[in-house]
């Protein structure tokens, strides 16, 4: 008897974000051969299977989405424990990255069950790969908050991290969010605007936030449909400035130095770094040791 290509375990499979040909052969095989298919939307999963020319019993397709994941994962863990193979997919792209699946993946690891990645399409990685921005760190922040106040606070927090930043946005909030990005990141900040990636009406724009906003407004005037579809934005926020020692809080320096050397040496270094008196330096070191 031929050994299965998918022994018992959880297979986290990436599916196309647009172009059907982007699916990997391993993901296609897992969709056909695994005992069970857990999908964010069972109807969209069935549409994908049909498009790929695959058939599997409806009874083997289960729903696992944002509203039922914590409940559904218990059944999935039982099935994995019973030596079943499960392939997990989201509506598009890679599960558990701004899509359901992370709770199930964590539960599988914690239960000592095999977890295997079947890599493939990801909107985050795809956008980064064509951005042309070269800087570290790179960070992904998911969807922007829907309300203006929390969104601006969130963007201010992102600005502190610097580096290359990727965020998602819904089309009906894009104009307001981009205006907030311009206000907080600066209109001259470079960005990549990616809409409907790999799909028929893909739109890619690169330039400053001001330039991209201008192009988007012109596009929408010519074609109102140009504002539809989920968006991936990549921003180059520059390098994080190195703090002047004089601007770093005394307790922060004291904590760092105490972790690396004796209290006496830490105090002497602190005096030189922060230009404080011997008494102030020793008091800061004592306080750092207590915290």
Annotate the secondary structure layout.
Layout (H helix, E strand, L loop, with lengths): L8 E5 L11 H9 L2 E4 L2 H10 L9 E3 L5 H13 L3 E5 L12 H9 L4 E4 L4 H9 L6 E6 L4 H14 L2 E6 L4 H12 L4 E6 L7 E6 H14 L8 E6 L13 H9 L4 H12 L3 H13 L1
Parallel strand pairs: 1-4, 1-5, 2-3, 2-4, 6-7
Antiparallel strand pairs: 7-10, 8-9, 8-10
Helix pairs in contact: 3-4, 6-7, 9-10, 9-11, 10-11
Describe the fold and architecture.
The chain has 291 residues and is of the alpha/beta class. The protein folds into three domains: 9-121, Tetrapyrrole methylase, N-terminal domain (Cobalt-precorrin-4 Transmethylase, domain 1), CATH 3.40.1010; 137-236, Methyltransferase, Cobalt-precorrin-4 Transmethylase, Domain 2 (2-Layer Sandwich); 245-290, no CATH class. 43% of the residues lie in helices and 18% in strands. It has eleven helices and ten strands. The strands form two sheets. The protein has a five-stranded parallel β-sheet, sandwiched between helices. Strands 6-7-10-8-9 form a five-stranded mixed β-sheet. Strand 8 and strand 9 (203-208) form a beta hairpin. The longest helix has 14 residues, at 148-161. The chain is flat. The model has no long low-confidence stretch (mean pLDDT 92).
